[in-house]
Specification:
With 739 residues, the protein is of the alpha/beta class. 31% of the residues lie in helices and 22% in strands. The longest helix has 20 residues.
Length: 739
């Protein structure tokens, strides 16, 4: 025992379900150390005993050689009395009272598993649920922590001898890979008609599903977090049929390609986009279409120059593509606006008029999740939907607060977050809380997080809007409740991610947010710190004629702005968009201000400009106007509209008169986006402060690229959190944390 020491490490972060314990076992064995490693409810505990040189080498390897998915957020080390153990062992999980070890997102298939899947001599050749500690399902199968097989939906499947040997061998890549299985002992695939008739099973089911897709059928396939609707992405009549059945007139469909080379035939990818599409996260990435490409149906993404592309991310998808002829539409199986469907009975009930056949399997999806969506601004990510592969996500915050806090987020693109044990854990994307199914998922998500972490909040935080479902739910809980203004929460979320506590100039532009004065905000410049904010400048407000009716029938917004600017002289222009009777009725609403709240939203200005640029009919999906204007943007045009900014207000309305004179859509769209850049720059130069951006308007890639090129001050926007309302829950927590 001379010259020997014993150390205990307590480690928190992403250290469960990622091969961390066998990694520790391997390096401890390498340096002939004694002791043990085990999971507990907070993370991992390691005790190691040996000579100082060996202990030093162990610690260095511990931090430098982490498994691919592991992340250490916090660690402590203590010296303790030697025990003289003769070996190093992996012990069973320690059940503790306080659970805070993060639940991991589902991960796409890793290279090693992919190689096995394609190797005819490997026992997992073409096995559709191949996985290991570096990949595969986690969030979708877990019921509670710690992440052990009895607490997952793999519990009913008894491992065969070969799988059990891998599972119990600390030196095997599948040691304690909880979803481990093979063709002998794993779940079963079933191909059924939509009326429930079983057609075939397992690999033959995949072969037949591919044949159905190749011959023009619309099918559903159960993926990792729910069902995808699938069809051939090259056949116009099939895509048109899907749009008609799903009542989705123009919202783009995501397209799954067999490999990166197939994407490059249709799209222009930067180095960062190639890396993002190919990463283990396997998100949907929005990229520029190649103008000369012709294989993908133009009905996939009408009127825009972007395409949402992604690669197969489960063994099931990979095998399917061995039998497919073309890229496929792979979009969430749901009713419009509702969450993704993860149960075949619900699929048959809700989508019987959309789907003809479906591929199911008998492992329960405990927690559903959509595909994540992002785009790249240079080498930076702009996250639009945080879900599979990314969420649940966790990060440590510098706070002494010991309370448990629940943030219930906003109304659109809702996500929730919790704070416990000095970390914030953000849920996957839930969606717009406009229907019963989404509201049920919102409550289920809160219940799931309560179950994962034995979590009962001491405080709930939500939005200021009195009519938000999330706000109303929070008020019924008999738990202290605080409300944070929507746009302030936007800025706080970015400040939290970038660990900013000093004052900043926040620029929050979006479609809708309830203001302190009861009006609708959305074009805000805020002086912010973690304690308070001041609305220093905002866009001049206008009447949102008919309230929510204007958000769908966007020509009403143009009417309101032109009447504000031209008075009765606007009528002659508006008759290009309304018949005389409709215009007369709308003018009465405007004159009497009937159900017409005041609004300062930049998102709504995009809608008005889109009408002038030729957009007809109602908006059918969020962001449609912005995507249209981006497609019209001409980088060779550097002009912008004249605007005035006084001490408090951005006076922009006269630019709509100039737009009427410009007429040409490319010119109008380009000058409008350039004008927004100029407004941001001019206000920013008034303050010698870091600039923080957040809000749905900044999903506009062209706008963000121009800002990045021109802003000279320190400039921050969310990189790991959704820039739209999906990130607001983090800002809500950041506001109430004790320093």
């Amino acid at each position: 025992m001379i010259n020997k020491s014993r150390l205990i490490y307590r480690i928190e972060g992403i250290v469960q379900g990622v091969g961390f314990r066998p990694f520790v076992y391997t390096i401890a064995s390498r340096y002939s150390l004694h002791g043990f490693v085990l999971n507990n409810a907070k993370g991992v505990v390691i005790e190691v005993e040996g000579f100082k040189e060996s202990l030093d080498a162990f610690e260095q390897a511990l931090f430098k050689e982490l498994p691919p998915l592991a992340r250490i957020d916090f660690w402590s080390k203590e010296l303790m009395a030697c025990r003289g153990n003769m070996a190093f062992e992996i012990r069973h999980s320690d059940e503790a009272n306080t659970k805070s070890s993060p639940v991991l997102p589902d991960m796409s298939i890793c290279k090693e598993c992919l190689d096995e899947l394609k190797d005819p001599h490997n026992r997992r050749y073409h096995y559709f649920f191949t996985n290991c500690t570096n990949c595969g399902p986690r969030y979708s199968i877990i019921k509670t922590v710690p992440y052990d097989r009895p607490y997952t939906s793999m519990q009913p499947f008894v491992m065969c001898e070969e799988c059990h040997n891998e599972y119990t061998n600390p030196l095997d890549r599948r040691y304690h890979a909880q979803p481990i299985s093979c063709s002998k002992c794993g779940p079963t695939l079933s191909l059924c008609s939509i009326n429930g008739e079983l057609l075939t099973t397992n690999e033959e089911a995949i072969v037949q599903l591919a044949k159905l897709i190749n011959t023009g059928h619309i099918v559903a396939m159960k993926g990792m977090g729910g069902f995808h609707l699938m069809c051939d992405a090259t056949q116009d009549d099939v895509v048109a049929n899907l749009r008609e059945r799903k009542h989705r007139p123009s919202k783009p469909f995501a397209v799954m390609f067999k490999n990166l080379e197939a994407i490059k035939e249709e799209c222009v990818l930067s180095v960062q986009e190639e890396e993002g599409v190919s990463s283990l996260l396997r998100p949907i990435v929005l990229v520029k279409r190649n103008a000369k490409a012709s294989k993908i149906s133009p009905l996939i993404a009408p009127r825009i120059d972007r395409l949402g592309v992604f690669l197969p991310y489960t063994p099931l998808h990979v095998i399917l593509f061995e039998y497919l002829k073309n890229p496929i539409v792979a979009t969430s199986a749901n009713r419009s606006g509702e969450p993704i469907i993860s149960d075949a009975n619900v699929l048959k009930e809700k989508l019987k008029d959309v789907v003809e056949y479906y591929l199911d399997y008998n492992r329960e999806i405990v927690n559903s999740s959509d595909d994540s969506v992002l785009q790249y601004i240079g080498d930076k990510t702009l996250l639009m939907r945080s879900s599979r592969g990314i969420a649940p996500q966790s990060f440590r915050v510098d706070s002494k607060d010991e309370r448990k806090i629940l943030a219930v987020g906003a109304h659109q693109k809702n996500a929730i977050a919790i704070y416990l044990n000095h970390q914030i854990i953000v849920s996957p994307y839930i969606g717009d809380l406009d229907n019963i199914a989404s509201n049920e998922l919102f409550e289920k998500m809160i219940e799931s997080f309560a179950r994962f972490y034995d979590f009962t909040p001491d405080l709930i935080v939500g939005d200021l809007h009195p009519n938000y479902v999330s706000t109303q739910w929070a008020k019924k809980q008999n738990i202290p409740f605080m409300q944070v203004q929507h746009h302030y929460a936007h800025i706080l979320s970015t400040m939290c991610e970038h660990k900013l506590s000093e004052p900043v100039l926040g620029i929050a532009w979006d479609g809708t947010g309830y203001g302190d004065d009861g009006t609708i905000w959305g074009g805000e410049f805020l002086l912010c710190n973690q304690e308070r904010y001041e609305r220093v400048i905002s866009f001049e407000s206008f009447l949102l004629l008919g309230g929510d009716a204007s958000i769908k029938e966007i020509k009403r917004i143009l009417a309101s702005l032109l009447w504000d600017t031209l008075g009765d002289d606007a009528d002659v222009h508006l008759l290009n968009y309304f018949d005389e009777k409709s215009l007369k009725l709308l003018k009465q609403i405007y004159t009497k201000q009937i159900n017409s709240p005041r609004c300062s939203s930049v998102g709504r200005l995009f809608d008005a400009v889109a009408v002038l640029c030729g957009m007809e009919g109602n908006v059918s999906y969020d962001g449609e106007s912005g995507l249209l204007l981006e497609a019209l943007y001409d980088a060779s045009i550097h002009e912008y509209y004249a605007i005035e900014i006084d001490d408090k207000i951005v006076h922009y309305k006269p630019m709509f008169v100039q737009m009427l004179k410009d007429k040409e859509p490319h010119l109008i769209a380009t000058k409008f986006i350039n004008t927004l850049v100029q407004i941001a720059l001019r206000v920013s130069t008034r303050y010698s402060l870091p600039i923080v951006l957040s809000g749905g308007v900044f999903q506009n890639r062209t706008l963000m690229e121009k800002l990045l090129q021109n802003v000279t001050q320190n400039f921050y926007f969310p990189l790991q959190l959704a820039i739209n309302d999906g990130g607001i829950c983090v800002g809500q927590i950041y506001k109430v944390l004790e320093k």
